[in-house]
TrEMBL record:
Organism lineage: Eukaryota, Fungi, Dikarya, Ascomycota, Pezizomycotina
Broad class of where this protein is predominantly found: mitochondrion
Name by which UniProt lists this protein: Altered inheritance of mitochondria protein 9, mitochondrial
Family: Belongs to the AIM9 family.
Keywords, in A-Z order: Mitochondrion, Transit peptide
Species this chain originates from: Aspergillus japonicus CBS 114.51
Cellular compartments annotated: Mitochondrion
Domain Aminoglycoside phosphotransferase stretches: 105-367
InterPro entries per the UniProt record, alphabetical: Aminoglycoside_PTrfase, Kinase-like_dom_sf, Mito_inheritance_9
Single GO cellular component term: mitochondrion
Keyword Cytoplasm among record annotations: no
Gene3D superfamilies: 3.90.1200.10
Length: 539
């Protein structure tokens, strides 16, 4: 079978012939196409953005040390026998979860190395699942994804980190071309996106989980359950299985978490998943959460674990009414790309044909309620064209209706967001300190109960008048600060996320301090000014 041919042995650090290692020239790609030379230490650092709050913590979560000579040797071997030296290493513009390097060889070949950062997800599982998923896409569905030459999900290898070595995607990122493409070219690309989605959703899955090679998980006693994915001929002895979800939202950071019995899949349906994520949060909260001051809510009383647990228990009561199980209950899940933004699609500039779809990390077979909605190119704000993108979205929906009715119904359901927001907000809510958003989504469900539940059943939960008033006061403070921050972003002064390009960090810090002082000065007395100082998010 093809998958057996793909199981490339992990690089051991022993070359087939002796090489004298010399560090190749190291370069870093910048935002606008320039390249600058860097030192080796910079390869391991996160260099694209800085943060106006918790900067050191954010950078540490994206720092990835590895052994460059061993990675170069592995890439040379992956490039074939006619490659003997690496002539250049280019550090690509960084995403949030991975280091990506392009290693150029003396035979003209380029090998892409991807190494997950510490924040990418669980060790072993994140890499093992991505590799298996991409092979499933190539073998079963003929999706154009770059071929993998070699990989290791064990950081105890010669490289000292998990890695994937793969071919460089052909074509150009769609993000470089989209704003200049005529409508006909955009429409052609949208047609191809629908075709790719149709291939993806032509296979349905019996569980919600990530794809793995069975041989990778069978020997891992800590994995609670596996579920085989049948081969096209119905053979249950498939190379592929469904296992744990890998997205970081399901993996809390505090030390000792391994002792918690958290459920991460595979889940048999949406209902089981929706309840499990709340129970995970309750267990994590009981073990790790500490009372914390929420200055938008009270200057004196901290938020407690009991408050969050009570909210989660009310959410669990809502679950039967928030979930829409499909008619096909045996195979409720489908596979889609987790983040189909423009730079994850490569096209041939001459024909506008899609040549590759990259970045399948964290992809999972999911119920339709958990799937991404529209691709970035179909969002109203793409390229600042507003309503001009509506015709593309209509082309997409019209074609989708005839190919995947289940997904079309979800995308056109009037109250889909209202119904699904609470479930999307639960994973990691406590660690994000974002009880407000979850409570807000649940209050909206209660307020529009007849739209969510059309059977006439009474809503099983309620919020007291006092709870609603406290929430309203908290919302007023949050919206007031957000209004100021949005104005600063619209004027190009400070980003709403607090994340700035590294080259702009010093200027952003000065601007942040200036506007923070102005914001605090709005207070009428010392007490108000102290409150405003606490409310400013970038300290």
């Amino acid at each position: 079978m093809l998958w057996k041919l793909f199981r490339t042995p992990v690089f051991t650090g022993k070359s087939q012939f002796t090489r004298t290692y010399t560090t190749p020239p190291l370069w870093r790609a910048l935002e606008h196409g320039e390249e600058v030379p860097i030192e080796e230490a910079e390869l391991y650092q996160y260099q694209r953005y800085r943060w106006l709050t918790k900067d050191a913590e954010q950078l540490a979560a994206r720092y990835r040390k590895f052994r460059l000579p061993a990675l170069v040797d592995a890439a040379i071997e992956a490039a074939g026998h006619d490659a003997s030296n690496c002539t250049k290493v280019l550090k690509c513009i960084e995403g949030q979860y991975n280091k990506s390097l392009i290693l150029s060889m003396d035979n003209g070949q380029e090998v892409v190395a991807r190494l997950p950062n510490p924040n990418a997800g669980p060790k072993f599982y994140t890499t093992a699942s991505e590799v298996a998923t991409r092979q499933f896409l190539r073998d079963r569905l003929a999706i154009p994804v770059p071929r993998i030459y070699a990989w290791s999900a064990d950081e105890a290898n010669a490289v000292g980190a998990e890695y994937i070595l793969e071919e460089k995607a052909s074509g150009q990122p769609l993000g470089l071309l989209w704003s200049d493409l005529p409508f006909s070219a955009r429409s052609h690309i949208v047609d191809q996106v629908v075709d790719i989605e149709q291939r993806l959703t032509s296979v349905t899955f019996p569980r919600h989980g990530c794809i793995y090679f069975q041989s990778d998980l069978g020997s891992r006693p800590e994995h609670p359950s596996l579920h085989p994915i049948q081969s096209p001929d119905g053979d249950s002895q498939s190379a592929f299985v469904l296992g744990l979800l890998t997205h970081p939202r399901y993996w809390h950071r505090p030390t000792g978490e391994a002792r918690l019995n958290l459920q991460r899949g595979p889940f048999k349906n949406m209902t089981e998943y929706a309840r499990a994520i709340a129970k995970n949060e309750i267990q994590w909260t009981q073990t790790h959460a500490q009372p914390r001051m929420n200055d938008q809510r009270s200057e004196e009383q901290p938020e407690t674990a009991d408050e969050y647990i009570a909210l989660l228990k009310r959410y669990i009561e809502l679950v039967p009414y928030l979930v829409r199980e499909p008619e096909d209950r045996e195979f409720p899940s489908q596979l889609l790309h987790p983040d189909l933004h423009l730079d994850n699609i490569f096209v041939d500039p001459a024909t506008n044909d899609i040549t590759a779809v990259i970045d399948w990390q964290h992809a999972a077979a999911s119920p339709v309620d958990l799937q991404p909605l529209f691709a970035q190119m179909l969002e109203p704000t793409t390229a600042g064209t507003g309503e001009g993108d509506d015709p593309l979205r209509q082309i997409y929906l019209t074609k989708l209706k005839g190919l995947n009715l289940r997904r079309w119904e979800a995308l056109t359901e009037p109250y889909h967001k209202l119904r699904t927001d609470p479930t999307r907000l639960v994973p990691g809510c406590g660690e994000r300190n974002d009880l407000f958003s979850l409570r807000h989504a649940m209050i909206a469900v209660v307020a529009q109960w007849d739209d969510v539940c059309t059977s006439g059943i009474k809503c099983p939960i309620n919020f007291s008048q006092r709870e609603l008033e406290e929430h309203e006061e908290e919302m007023e403070l949050i919206e007031g600060v957000s209004l100021v921050l949005r104005q600063l972003q619209e004027q190009g002064l400070l980003p709403l996320s607090g994340m700035v390009l590294r080259e702009q960090y010093d200027d952003a810090q000065r601007l942040n301090q200036h506007f923070r002082n102005e914001f605090i000065a709005l207070g009428e007395d010392a007490k108000q000014r102290a409150m405003l100082a606490r409310l400013w998010p970038y300290s």
